[in-house]
Structures are given as C-alpha cells and as structure tokens.
Inverse folding.
C-alpha cells in the first residue's frame, strides 16, 4: 500500500541491570519514519529517548538488553545483522549526531582525518575529494577557516565548534537517515537556526529523514512533521506538530507546553506552569501509567498498563481518559 | 553628529556620593578586560579584548538581562562583577562605592553567583547543609548553632524540604541541585545575584519551577538580578531591561518590552529573529547573519558587527559608531538615531 519506511521501530524494549534489579528504560516504543520526514522525539531526562536512539543504531552499552518486534532500516532488519553489516550502514546510509561531541570525537586524530574517514571507508574516493567535501561541509555548518580546522585536534576547538564538526561528520556520506540527539542544544540560537536550516534544506533536496531527539519545544514546533512525546520509557502521545501544539491530549504534553515562556504570549513576571514531582523509578516490573504520580487528573484506573488509544491517522494518546472517552463515543 | 550628552557621564560623577534609591546597585564605568593570547608557535602574543569599555548600571531591584553569543564576553563581565577577576581598566561600583580587589570578601557578601550547571558547581563530597553553610563559615557569620538555623530557613526559602540537609548532591535531581545552588547564594542574604544561564542545564518542567522560584525570591527579598542567558524567551519573561553584547561591547540597552517590540541594533534584531517560538508551520527563520562569529583576536574594523550586518555601509566598515545614550537606553550603531526625550 505505502512505501517502505526508512526506519521501522516496533515494540522496542531496552533494559539495563542496575543495583537492585533491572531498569526497564524503554518499554515498548513503536514508530515509523518515512523518507524525507522529520520525527521529533520529545521528553525529559530519563524518559528513554537517548537509549531509544542508541538501540536503533546498535550502540547500546554491552550490559543493556534490546528486544523488539521489528527494527528495520529500509526494510532490512537491524536485529541479527552482523557487526560488519551494521558498520557498513552506520556512517554511510544512517548516521548519528550525539549530544556530547567529546564522547564521539577521537582526541588522538585531527578533525580532518575523522571527517574524511567516513567517506574513505564507505566510498571509492580519493583523499583530495574527501578533503574537499570535508571543507565544504564545515563551511556549510558555519565554520570559518575550514581548511585550517582540518589540521586541528578536537581539544583545540570550542564546544560549539566540536558540535558542528560532529554534524558535518554525520553528513559526509550523504546519509538517508540521521538520528540526532539534542544536536543544537549547546549552541547559540543564531547557530542553531543556521544548522536547522541546513538540515531542512537537505531534507527537501535529498529526501533526508531525520529523527530529532530534543526537549526544546521551539525546535520541535518549527521542524517536526510528526512528534512522539515520551515519558518514563513509553510514547505517551503522537501526532503532527500542529496537532501536538494546538490540541495536546496527554496531561504530560499539556503540562510541558505550559512550562515554557513564549514572548508575546506568556505574561512577563508571572508564574509559568509546572509539572510537579519527579519521574518514577523504572526498576523492576513497572506496569502502571508512568505519569500517574505527577498527573493532576490521576485516578484509580491509572494503576494498570495503559495502551495507546488511536485518535486518527498517526495520532494516538496513552491515557486512561482517552480510553474512557473512546468507550463513551 | 555627536550624540546628546549622556544622562550619566560616568567619569564626571563624584565617586563617593551618599547612596540614594537612585544609586545603582552595581555600576561598571568604562570597564575593559584584556587577555594575552598566543598567536601560535613563534608568533608572539596579542591582546584579546574580552570586555571593551563597558559602562553599565544595574538598578536596585531590577532584573537586567545580558544576552549575546558565546565568546561575546558575558561570562568575563560577570566574573568582573563577582570580583573573581579584576578589570584591566575602569571601575566597578557597588552601591555607589568603588570596590577594589582587596574588598573581595565585602563584595561577596553582597553579590552572589548562581551558575549554569548544578552538576558541576556543587561539591559531591559535601552534604547540602555543608554546601549551603560554607559561605557563612568563610565569612565567619553567626555561631554554629545559628548557622544551622539560617541554613534551614534558607532551604525553606528555596522550596527544599529540610530533610535534604544531610543528603549529597548525587542523591538529588537536577532541579533540587539548582535549588541548593540558589540556597548557597542566598544564605548570605545578598543584594545582587548574578545568574549565569541558571536554567540551561535543566529539563523543561524543572526550568519553569526554577524560573518561578527566581521570580518569587526577587519579589520577596527585593533582590537585584543580572540574568545571563542565551534563551531570549527566558530573558523576556524575567528581565526588566536587556543589555545586548557583541564582541566585548554593549551594543544596545533597552527596556525588555521595547526591545522585543522593536530592537534598535541590527544584531539585537537578528538575535530576536532566531528565537524559535513553539509555532508549528512557521519554519526556521533565516537570521541573515551570514556565517561565523568573528574571531575576537582579530576583530573587524569599524563597527565590529558590520561583516554580518545586512544594513552595513562604508561608514560602518571605516569607523566605530559612537555610543548613543538617550531616554530609551543605549545603542551603538551608525544607523540608529537618538530617541526623542519624553515630553
């Protein structure tokens, strides 16, 4: 019926052994991403959004356990793929941009070597071609004196520059899918706008699919086609950006949206909304609604597993209130 | 084309007038700070002007926002205000009195910092009560019994349960840690808090709680804040006035509402344009800033902003604009005109 999604994730679960049991960090996450589509995963620390992205890339820490009903890139299952096959995909057709550039840049190699490595590994190109591409991309992410930067080591660059080197590195092979974990959070607003611009351009021109993990609701609103809101290891609401922002259904989504100041809309000096409380511990068998403890609308019925209630094409919410409304309708 | 005489010609004002309500809480007069940086092997060193002839007032009871890109000198400026770094030239006045390096302790009693990262700014081996009472010990304030009481009161003030007093930072959430950092700043009952990106490292729902707390504390205790942030929505929410910094200089100071309604400096305009409000379908604005922030070691000629300015003229390349101080605040741009005095 429809095209094969570039990324298919179905019932993804990630658990980690910790003191006192098993931490069920990702508890059954499902989503599809089509070519040329931007999916934003929104959520706060501990909601499992970063582990979700690492699980897709096959980059989880060794002690973590991954299970999924399906995990496929362009129709090709990523589960059971050989490490070699996975390496062939990563950095070439799918790339990842991490939040913390220092953890993913090698301090012992120059920026140029690391940038060019991706292209030299995956494509039959000459060093000078790889070098030219590296320079062009550094310029596109707003780095001046790009040629000189190639000879520098990561520690010689500021945090903002390193982050942009990471982004350039992810783009080297012209990937079809980029998974980016808070790619612009540490950057100045001006650079952020510029990099988001570049990503949108690549999406338009090359059909790049993007999974962007962020807690910045401004970024989400401006670049997402679809949004998945995560809380306590689960997707609690999905929809288009317009649906999520104009008609949020889950109490957590509503709470989050009330927390941010918006020039011209929130009144300066007045209290912002808040979501009191903290995220629940996901150690052991946790089955109830994860938001129950913080939810102003919580009731007894929330103390059991809550499924996603479909509200329309690509639109769903995981809340007991939606279940009862649906039953009433 | 000389601008009108400034309301407050810094160097002419007598230094030791009796403080009045009008006396600024904190004042920088022609403050500069240079760093010697190496140009590279065998190339000698050069001066980097991190802060370049800044005159700025922090009025009693106000929240002054300070915005600008990384490397513009915001943090150097805050370190000078905190007394952690002497200015290369110029004067810092606290309550109308000049403060020299020797008065660091006196200054620390009145001006306290809140830093960005509550994960790295708290000693992981100390309990909350040790962290919060440390300033009291350093300044030898109160007997040990009194200190415990003051710490408990301060924890109440920032909305932390007293039972956390014996906890370690590692046992707390990010929001709680930032509350501890605020409690540590408040325990000396300072008049001014320098908040450097106080919520940038926090989750959205926690950020709003800390912003609400900062607002409450300011109202209850009559505090004065300098709020350094790259989140302009946060600045708009908290600040009464905003100072915009570019390459070591303050290029605009305006009341917050006026700045957001109509910035006077093209750089302020570009910064505001890059704020991403949560409006789906609006796309990402083109700030038209061009590529990079200039290298502060080798600043552009004339107006330092001219290479990125869409309205730049030959004059902007050749000559640095005069500082216009008028009824609306301050602006440093060849294209700006002095605001008419209010009738």
């Amino acid at each position: 019926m429809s095209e094969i999604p570039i990324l298919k994730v179905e019932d993804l679960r990630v658990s980690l052994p910790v003191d006192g049991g098993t931490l069920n960090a990702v508890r059954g996450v499902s989503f599809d991403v089509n070519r040329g589509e931007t999916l934003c995963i929104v959520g706060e620390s501990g909601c499992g959004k970063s582990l979700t992205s690492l699980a897709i890339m096959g980059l989880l820490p060794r002690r973590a356990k991954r299970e999924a009903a399906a995990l496929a890139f362009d129709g090709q299952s990523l589960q059971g793929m050989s490490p070699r096959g996975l390496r062939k995909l990563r950095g070439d057709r799918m790339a990842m941009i991490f939040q913390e550039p220092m953890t993913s840049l090698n301090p012992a190699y120059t920026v140029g070597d690391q940038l060019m490595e991706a292209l030299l590994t995956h494509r039959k190109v000459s060093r000078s071609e790889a070098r030219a591409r590296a320079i062009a991309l550094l310029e596109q992410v707003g780095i001046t004196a790009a040629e000189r930067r190639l000879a520098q080591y990561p520690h010689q660059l500021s945090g903002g520059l390193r982050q942009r080197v990471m982004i350039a590195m992810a783009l080297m092979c012209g990937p079809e899918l980029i998974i980016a974990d808070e790619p612009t959070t540490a950057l100045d607003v001006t650079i952020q706008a510029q990099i988001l611009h570049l990503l949108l351009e690549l999406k338009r021109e090359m059909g790049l699919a993007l999974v962007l993990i962020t807690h910045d609701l401004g970024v989400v609103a401006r670049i997402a086609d679809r949004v998945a809101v995560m809380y306590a290891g689960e997707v609690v609401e999905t929809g288009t950006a317009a649906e999520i922002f104009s008609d949020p259904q889950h109490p957590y989504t509503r709470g989050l949206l009330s927390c941010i100041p918006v020039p011209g809309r929130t009144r300066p000096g007045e209290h912002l909304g808040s979501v009191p409380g903290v995220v629940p511990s996901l150690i052991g068998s946790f089955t109830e609604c994860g938001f129950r403890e913080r939810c102003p609308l919580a009731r007894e019925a929330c103390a059991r597993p809550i499924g996603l209630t479909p509200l329309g094409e690509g639109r769903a919410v995981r809340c007991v209130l939606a279940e009862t409304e649906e039953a009433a309708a | 084309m000389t601008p009108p005489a400034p309301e407050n010609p810094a160097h002419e004002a007598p230094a030791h007038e009796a403080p009045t309500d009008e006396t600024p809480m904190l004042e920088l007069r022609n403050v500069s700070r240079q760093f010697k940086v190496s140009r590279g092997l065998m190339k000698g060193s050069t001066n980097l002007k991190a802060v370049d002839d800044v005159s700025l007032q922090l009025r009693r009871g106000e929240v002054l926002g300070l915005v600008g890109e990384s490397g513009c000198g915001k943090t150097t400026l805050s370190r000078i205000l905190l007394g952690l770094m002497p200015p290369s030239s110029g004067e810092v006045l606290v309550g109308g009195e000049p403060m020299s390096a020797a008065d660091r302790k006196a200054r620390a009693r009145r001006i306290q910092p809140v830093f960005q990262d509550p994960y790295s700014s708290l000693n992981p081996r100390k309990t909350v009560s040790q962290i919060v009472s440390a300033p009291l010990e350093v300044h030898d304030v109160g007997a040990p019994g009194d200190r415990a009481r003051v710490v408990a009161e301060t924890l109440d003030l920032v909305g932390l349960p007293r039972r956390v007093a014996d906890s370690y930072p590692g046992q707390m959430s990010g929001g709680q840690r930032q509350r501890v950092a605020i409690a540590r700043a408040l325990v000396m009952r300072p008049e001014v808090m320098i908040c450097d990106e106080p919520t940038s490292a926090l989750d959205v729902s926690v950020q709003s709680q800390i912003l609400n707390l900062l607002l409450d504390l300011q109202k209850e205790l009559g505090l004065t804040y300098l709020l350094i942030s790259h989140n302009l929505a946060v600045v708009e929410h908290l600040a009464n006035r905003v100072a915009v910094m570019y390459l070591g200089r303050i290029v605009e100071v305006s009341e917050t509402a006026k700045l957001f309604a109509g910035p006077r400096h093209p750089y302020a305009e570009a910064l505001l344009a890059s704020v991403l409000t949560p409006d789906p379908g609006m796309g990402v604005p083109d700030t038209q800033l061009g590529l990079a922030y200039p290298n502060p070691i080798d600043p552009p000629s004339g107006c330092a902003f001219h290479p990125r300015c869409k309205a730049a003229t030959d004059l902007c390349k050749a000559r640095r604009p005069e500082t216009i101080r008028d009824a609306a605040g301050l602006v440093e741009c060849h294209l700006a005109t002095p605001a008419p005095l209010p009738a």
Remarks:
- Chain B has one domain: 24-37+44-331.
